[in-house]
Structure formats: structure tokens, C-alpha cells
Amino acid sequence: MNTILIGIAGGTGSGKTTLANRLVDSFGSDEVSILRHDNYYKRHDEIGYEERTKLNYDHPDAFDTELLCGHICALKAGKSVPMPVYDYSAHNRSDATIPVSPAPVIVLEGIMIFADIKLCGLMDIKVFVDTDADVRILRRIIRDVKERGRSLDSVIEQYLTTVKPMHEQFVEPSKRRADIIIPEGGNNPVALDMLIQRVKKHLNGE
């Protein structure tokens, strides 16, 4: 199978997940599969809940990127993989997995995916979603409080202590590795249409 990997990166709340989902939803599951870097947070059964809440989840070392690279290579070789599931309420990887089937197009989305050179080397198209910082933090607050059961104080503290400095140290510089920079992500219909047309060309063998 001739598979291409499209990486979609960007800061927290930038709209990269929305862009990735809309791209995937434009095609069938037999044509496009999706991997999410957030699902590949390392497992930490060796420490308790309180210690896990204090870990820096916005550093490249927080991710099991080696496992992710292995799964990408397996998908490109035509094999299905068990994508891990991360439990945000427990701050740990759960025992569940999500089966991901090989497809002509694989979409990988995540904050830190351009920060790892090996992972970047597996990508055929690298897209960075660029969104204003104040918009991103507001989106993150709404998501973490409403969807992940976090307190407002904990979200703000995490943003100031790790999210913002790690964005400046790793995410923003990784933008230089992008082939395409898209303002506003999923809210940019012109950019989404360009990606859709590129995927259609690949599916048609062009």
C-alpha cells in the first residue's frame, strides 16, 4: 500500500484537532486513518495519582514516541495497530486501546509531533496550525474544565508553569519544520479544502 503520513501540529487549543477531524471526516475510514499523539503519553503505574498530577505533560519526553513511530511503520506496512487510550482524569494511560487500520492516508495530530526529528522523518506532509495565544488559552480552559473535569485554578496553574514555557521552548520553534502553516486550523475552510484536494490526488494515484 502506498501510504502518506500527514502531520498536523500546533499549540494547545490552536484548532489542529478540529482540522484533523474535518479532514478525516471528508473521507471514509478505509481511505484515511488517524493517530493522536496525546494517546501516546507514557504510562506511569509506578507512581501515585498525586505525583502524576505534577508531571510535565508538555515536554517531548512525556510521550512514548518510540511506540508511536513503531505503530506508524506497522501501518505503512499494512498492519493494524492498537492505539493506546489516555485517561485524563487519572493522569495515566488506561488499559483500553483503539484499533487503527492501515489506509492510504494516515493523519497524525499533536502538539509535539514536529519536536522529534525521527517522527518528523516519517511524515510526507507537515502542517502547522498557527493561532493567537490568547485564543488558544481560552479554548484550553473551556476544554479542560468542561470536558476533562479539571478545576479552573489547576488549568491556569498548569498553563503558566508548563504549557506556556514548553510551547515557547519546543512547539513554536518546531514550526520551522512545517511544509505548510495554516492560520486558525479547522476554522480555515480554504486551507482545509487544499488538504482535501491533496488527499484526493493521492487516493487517485496522482
Care to describe what's here?
The chain has a single domain, classed as P-loop containing nucleotide triphosphate hydrolases (Rossmann fold, 3-Layer(aba) Sandwich), CATH 3.40.50. Helices cover 41% and strands 21% of the residues. The protein contains 7 helices and 7 strands. It has helices at 16-25, 49-53, 65-76, 117-121, 133-146, 152-174, 189-203, and strands at 4-10, 32-36, 81-87, 92-100, 105-109, 125-130, 180-183. Strands 2-5-1-6-7 form a 5-stranded parallel sheet, sandwiched between helices. A two-stranded antiparallel sheet has the order 3-4. Helix 5 packs across helix 6 (152-174).
List the helices and strands and how they pair.
Elements: E1 4-10, H1 16-25, E2 32-36, H2 49-53, H3 65-76, E3 81-87, E4 92-100, E5 105-109, H4 117-121, E6 125-130, H5 133-146, H6 152-174, E7 180-183, H7 189-203
Parallel strand pairs: 1-5, 1-6, 2-5, 6-7
Antiparallel strand pairs: 3-4
Write a concise keyword list for the protein shown above.
Rossmann fold, alpha/beta, 206 residues, 5-stranded parallel beta sheet, 41% helix
CATH superfamily: P-loop containing nucleotide triphosphate hydrolases
Number of strands: 7
Q: How helix-rich are the residues, as a percent range?
A: 40-55%
What's the CATH architecture name?
A: 3-Layer(aba) Sandwich
Radius of gyration: 17 Å
The description of the largest β-sheet is: 5 strands, parallel
Based on helices, strands and strand pairing, what is the structural class? alpha/beta
CATH topology: Rossmann fold
Number of domains: 1
Terminal CA distance: 14 Å
Global morphology: globular
Number of helices: 7
CATH domain class = Alpha Beta
- The low-pLDDT segments are none
Main sheet strand line-up: 2-5-1-6-7
What is the ordering of alpha helices and beta strands? EHEHHEEEHEHHEH
**Quaternary structure:** single chain
- Beta content comes to 15-25%
